[in-house]
Amino acid sequence: MADLLLRAAWLWAGADTPPQPDARVLLRDGVVAALGMEATGVPVLDMGDAVLVPGFTCAHQHGRGLSQLQLGYPDDRLEAWANRRRLRGGPAAHPLVLLAAARMLANGITGCLHANWSYGGPQEEELAEVSRAYAESGMRAAICVGVADRGALVLPEEATDGFIAGLPPALRPLAQSVRRHPFIATAAEAARVHDGLSARWAGTRLRFMFGPAGPHWVSDRLFAELAAAARDRATGLHFHLLESPAQQQACRAIYPEGVMRRLLALGALGPRNSAAHGVYLTPDDMAVMAGTGTALVLNPGSNLRLHNGPPPVSALARSGVRLALGGDDCELNDDRDPWGELRLVATLGHLPPAELLRAATETAAAVAGLPGGRIAPGLPADIVALAPPAAHDPDLPLEHALTGRATGRDVRMTMVGGEVLYRDGRLPRHDLPTLEQAALEAARAVRRHPARAPADVEALGRALLDFYASTGAAPGR
Questions:
Q1: Which ranges in the chain are annotated with CATH 2.30.40.10?
Q2: Tens of pLDDT along 281-318?
Q3: What's the CATH code, domain 1-55+373-430?
Q4: Are the CB atoms for 57 and 17 separated by under 8 Å?
Q5: pTM score, two decimals?
Q6: pLDDT by residue (tens digit) across 194-223?
Q7: Alpha carbon distance 156, 110 (integer Å)
Q8: CB 309 within 8 A of CB 248
Q9: In this structure, which topology does domain 56-371+436-447 adopt according to CATH?
Q10: Which of 77, 113, 246, 427 gives 20 to 30 Å between its CA and that of 392?
């Protein structure tokens, strides 16, 4: 890759340095070679009055390129929503993931963590298609091998037989059909799949992790075995945690000492590991996370849309928990815009601009085990050019203007490893309308041939909500 000099009006190189005027970034072989210097005889990419910022990493999402409303499961209480999603049947993975990647690139997201997810088919085959989609997009991705062995229908697992017995006879076969997770159920199988994918995609922008679905969905033995497998491979664990009132209640019953203390005893915490959501973390949970360096990925828009309440951002920050930004394919505005989610985090936690940028760049990249998070010599040239904030008051620091006003629509250019993957509304590798049509057709195929009768799916969802109401798991705050 030839040398390139990238110019712009401003450079916000990372969370530890304020924006600086007259940005000049020399790139060599896809890596930042120098800042602030001219280079003769080198091609120039001049972004004019733009602001250069590090590419964002979305540290929790599932590759759903279409809105969940388009896919047939609108916002609802999490457990009813998940029931509707699972029983509707899964669309083909490749077109949805490729569209998700394209939309992330268009919003200035250069890397992502693809959390455990099932499109309804065999995990190994789906993960192959997921990996192929991210590779075709050009973005960086850490892809989790999903693992679970309990609690697929209701929480905790021990309540399953009683729940099914209490259903109308006509619904019992449907409930029985989903009492097992679609994910891999053993650490040995997860390790085999992980290692095969890692070998297949070695030397690319992809890497692989283990994705235990969450402590209430994964037995102690399996969690401990996955933690050991991750350590042996110098990779991480990423899991859902205390997202809903039902999960909170189940974890109180399963882990009387506290869920994070149990995970600590199982060897499942540490700087390479992370959890998503954490809406119902206790002060002791936060202290354990902070003490082990385990990160929490915030998804505030999703938490509000799925009736779970906001994450305790202020308390997390005070506790010293490492915070990263996700999106969960369920941003408040349903648009893949990370700046809007950052503003929601700022509103909930009153975090300063530097810490907001850190959550979306350095910490998010670290959570995914991806390089970058700053624009600095020796790091990959994962760089985004943003239009300057409209009507910027010169007395207002630029970082405040950006975190307060910038949107994904302001992205002019997204570069990964020195390769321009988005520029002024176009994707050099793909045609966005074509990707959208392919994803929509995948969703239509499921609607034309639903896996289960819609009326039965809705009836089972109502029964789930009645069950959790009877156990005292009230709607989120």
A1: 1-55+373-430
A2: 999 999 999 999 999 999 999 999 999 999 999 999 99
A3: 2.30.40.10
A4: no
A5: 0.96
A6: 999 999 999 999 999 999 999 999 999 999
A7: 38
A8: no
A9: TIM Barrel (3.20.20)
A10: 427
The C-alpha angle with vertex 154 and arms to 162 and 298, in degrees rounded to 5, equals: 160
Any idea which residue has 């009492």 for tokens? Answer: 179
Q: Which two tokens stand for residue 458?
A: 């809705």
What Å distances lie between residue 164 and 179, 288, 460, CA to CA? Answer: 10, 37, 10
Q: By the 8 A CB rule, do 322 and 300 touch?
A: no
Spatial neighbors of 129 by CB under 8 A, at least 6 apart, are 92, 93, 94, 97
Transcribe 275-301 into DSSP letters.
EEE-TT--HHHHHHHHHHT-EEEE-HH
In the chain, the amino acid numbered 5 is L
CA 271 to chain CA centroid, Å, is 17
Q: Are 261 and 182 in contact (CB under 8 A)?
A: no
Task: Indicate where the chain has its CATH 3.20.20.140 domain(s).
Answer: 56-371+436-447
In this predicted model, what pLDDT tens digit does every residue of 386-410 receive, in sequence order? 999 875 677 889 999 999 999 999 9
Q: How many CB atoms lie within 10 A of CB 308?
A: 25
Q: Distance between CA atoms of 54 and 415, rounded to whole angstroms?
A: 10
Distances (CA, A) of 234 to 230, 237, 245: 6, 10, 33
Non-local CB neighbours of 432 within 8 Å, separated by 6+ positions? 102, 106, 426
C-alpha angle 163-165-170 in degrees, rounded to nearest 5: 105
3-state secondary structure of 450: coil
Q: Residue for token digits 């455990």?
A: 116
Average pLDDT of the residues in 275-283: 98
Q: Supply 308's token pair.
A: 């779970």
**Dist CA 440 CA 155 (whole Å):** 33
Nearest-angstrom CA–CA distance, 324 and 58: 8
Picking from 55-59, 85-89, 271-275, 339-343, which range would have the lowest pLDDT averaged per residue? 85-89
The CA radius of gyration of the chain, in Å to the nearest whole number, is: 22
Contact by Cβ (8 Å): 244, 308: yes
Q: If you search the block for the tokens 């390479």, which residue do you land on? A: 272
Q: Select from 10, 30, 5, 97 the least CA-distant residue to 398.
A: 10
